[in-house]
Amino acid sequence: MELRNIAIIAHVDHGKTTLVDGLLKQSGTFRDNQKVETCAMDSNELERERGITILSKCTSVEWKGVRINIVDTPGHADFGGEVERILSMVDGVILLVDSSEGPMPQTKFVLGKALKVGLKPIVVINKADKPDARVDDVLNEVFDLFVSLNATDEQLDFPVLYASGRNGWAVKDLNEEKKDLSVLFDLILSKVPAPLCYPDKPFSMLATTLEADKFIGRLLTGKIYSGSIKAGDTVKVLTHGNKEIERFRITKIMAYRGLTRQSLDEAFAGDIVAIAGASKGTVADTLCDFSVTEAIEAQPIDPPTLVMTFSVNDSPIAGREGDKVTSRVIAERLQKEAEGNIALKISATASSDAFEVAGRGELQLGVLIETMRREGFELSISRPRVVFHKDENGQITEPVDEVVVDVDEEFSGTVVEKMGLRRAELIEMIPAQAGNKVRLVFHAPTRGLIGYHSEFLTDTHGTGVMNRSFYEYELYKGEIEGRRNGVLISSENGTAIAYSLWKLEDRGPMFIDPNVPVYVGMIIGEHTKPNDIEVNPCRSKQLTNIRAAGKDEAISLTPPRRMSLEEGLSYIQDDELLEVTPKTIRLRKRILDPIQRKRSSIKVE
User: Fold this and answer.
1) How, if at all, do strands 522-526 and 517-518 pair?
2) CA-closest candidate to residue 26, choices 202, 251, 258, 226
3) Same domain, 218 and 267
4) Residue of 265, 247, 203 lying closest to 228 (CA atoms)
């Protein structure tokens, strides 16, 4: 059977997964009466909750006797490592662009990667039925983007379709009848070349993704570059530098047919398959016949820009909510994550109970923490820090993000002011053609953006949209002012009392409810002044045997400020930690004992 391998790439929320839904339905993959969830490719629990794609996923459809393998990729820059690997597995890409937003930072990122490996994109301007669609302007912006990324003449001659993934239609001209996606299927067959492969050479395959199946074991997915393979064959694994690391017997060959994986007896060059049986082979390794001596070259992955310290939870109430609390279990879980996600780097620290985890951004690391807490882990997490480098002159450089902000004009001044405080540089200010919107483009140091998103939403009354992606390393921008307020620290172990919290409300907003366990060194609220103070949240009202003349005061507590995982990570300072358990997120001081904490601060000064 003829094959085509394509990836769908786009900025987050431009409709990749919804378009794949439409392709699956119209290719006859589902029965007419089959109940299928929307965004069928977003199978991960966190993906469904957040409405984003985190992990790349394969599917395949048949159209006019040709099998089309489709890979749905993430749209967030934090998961760019997934996109970079996938592009080495496909022979064409569909670049999806929103008809009103136009090209965004991640559009630029994924398109640049696709053009660099020589792919010729098909451009689909999606959501063309939106009331604020501006398809002609967006098409011009896309062309300008291709030019700015040094596209070749062949790549610049890209075909264009206008589509609505949700309503299941695509057309070459908006005046045509909008009935189905057949024109997109036909364009894939005519414009995407058959897989570049060598059927007559010995078997070789580059592993691009790794996953663990509880029944089958480790599964390595990739495109067969040459030859064919049968279940039961024995192959070897070559790592970078052509070094052999293991030989194994292939226990199973799996391939996607629609949304399900089917077992194959034999697979041929050009197809995308998953192979089981390897114990050491991982992402970017080459699986091959014994006669092959050179590994297939893997695409380089951009280095991490943010690092956090994951350590054992050593608070007095550790182990009450989670069952995975030891350093050994945490280390094994992190190593397993790093195996399949090569954009993550795990390294040991001076302490045997702590590990440094470096990744692309807050979202990627936040998703890892959230996944681990749902698996039953308890962790202490440090404030995110950026990864600094030194240039050839010995000067310190830091990662800088390109930030695109769409806001109402009335809020633009506030955003420019706040971004200025974070050492951001305003590059462009583009008024929208319709409405009172304005688009602001900044180059901002990554460390200045840590924790800014929640403040940004407050400043813009929830109407602003901020997108960012890694731009480049630039010279160190100087000091950035951190949190201005101090915190309220518990001076007692016990349970928080409503009366005590009520009396403390004058000192600042609380982070906890009454009747929750507290301990010495735990942060229970924010101080209205810059200094930290220790308070007792466990003190109850003193009772006497003398009858009071007046009535008791009615206790009316202000609802506490509850922090999400991302807000907590951005709120804590260098001397604080985030305690993460399956049920609770708490803030605490790194050193719990007040006397030791004071001694430590004196040494630092």
Assistant:
1) unpaired
2) 258
3) yes
4) 203
Of the candidates 426, 456, 431, 430, the residue with the CA atom closest to the CA atom of residue 442: 426
Domain final residue pick, 149, 169, 191: 191
Per-residue pLDDT of 203-238, as tens digits, reads 999 988 887 777 888 888 889 999 999 999 999 999
User: Structural domain of residue 162, as residue ranges?
Assistant: 2-191
Q: Which tokens in the block code for residue 464?
A: 């602003």
Average pLDDT over residues 577-604: 89
Contact in structure between 123 and 95 (CB atoms under 8 Å): yes
Q: Are 53 and 46 in contact (CB under 8 A)?
A: no
pLDDT of 176 strictly over 60: yes
Residue 410 and residue 375 in contact, taking contact as beta carbons nearer than 8 Å: no
Output the domain CATH number for residue 443: 3.30.70.240
- Contact predicate 24/16, CB 8 Å: no
Q: Residue 382 has what DSSP assignment? A: P
Same domain, residue pair 7 and 65: yes
3-state secondary structure 547-560: CCCCCCCCCCCCCC
Identify the H or E element spanning 263: strand 260-264
Looking at residue 462, its pLDDT comes to: 84
Whether the predicted pLDDT of 48 surpasses 60: no
The strand ranges marked E within 371-448 are 379-381, 385-386, 389-390, 396-408, 425-431, 437-445
Beta strands 266-268 and 379-381: pairing type? Answer: unpaired
**124 φ/ψ angles, rounded to the nearest 5 degrees:** -120, 115
- Chosen domain end from 288, 312, 328: 288
